[in-house]
Amino acid sequence: MLNFQRLELKDIPLVRPFLTPNPQRLCDLTVGGLFMWRDLFHNEYALAADCLILSMHIFESHKAYTVPLGENREEALALLEAHCQELGEPLVFCIVGDQDLPLLSKRYPDFHAISERDYFDYLYEAQDLLELKGGKHRATRGNISKFLRTTPDWRFEMINEDNIEAVCEFAASIQAENPQDNTTLAEEARKIREVLDHMTDYGMFGGVLFVGDQVAGFSLAETVEDTLYIHVEKADTQYRGVYQMLVSEFMKMFGDSKAIDFVNREDDNGDP
After folding, report:
1. Mean pLDDT of the 200-227 span
2. Which pLDDT value is given to residue 117?
3. Are 235 and 46 in contact (CB under 8 A)?
4. Cis preceding-peptide flag for 21 (omega within 30 of 0)
5. Does residue 197 sit within a domain?
6. pTM for the whole thing?
7. Res 88: pLDDT
8. Do 140 and 62 share a structural domain?
């Protein structure tokens, strides 16, 4: 039986090498995606045949597993099959990208895939978000213009030791306004604070939008090869167009690079 262990912050150095490369550009297979939600989904990990396998509770009755990450995937799958058989549980996979489907279909002829739209990633071309050209971005450009007209006293900074406490206070104020019975938002807030306290461990960076001396929004992200993964976007919606402005300025600071081809924003909030 495989030895699954609870995923903890200290495990980032062990896990990170298995997450690169990430050719399918899945946010759930990044340090931020895995570790920020590790407690909500009870993430565990095991090493098998020099591969990393992750388990998580996304179903009430049983665990789901990632396709093994590493070179010896067939051998690792055999070990995982034996593990589930010994437990008397079905073998169910999660976080399966298009490039993994042929492997699973060949090994499991009766295998079938289910798409969960709520968990779709939203992948953008970096230049598209930088330039905001064309009719599809007309509303975004309009909202940015409204922000600039109505909020002249603004600035955008990289999160650093001089402003991180203000960002932490703003994040806490956002959480205070959330419904008290929303466990997902509460867990997200705890992990946002963890990231802000351990930016180096997470390998993340961030930007903060100020209006006057007050934080109006911030974003946290990481890069893996040619993709920028934006894991957190929080803003004060009393400012019209604040999310569009936040994304635009974040892209100018962190996405305007020949090394960045794509941006994964995890989900689609409609901004921009």
Report:
1. 98
2. 65
3. no
4. yes
5. yes
6. 0.93
7. 94
8. no
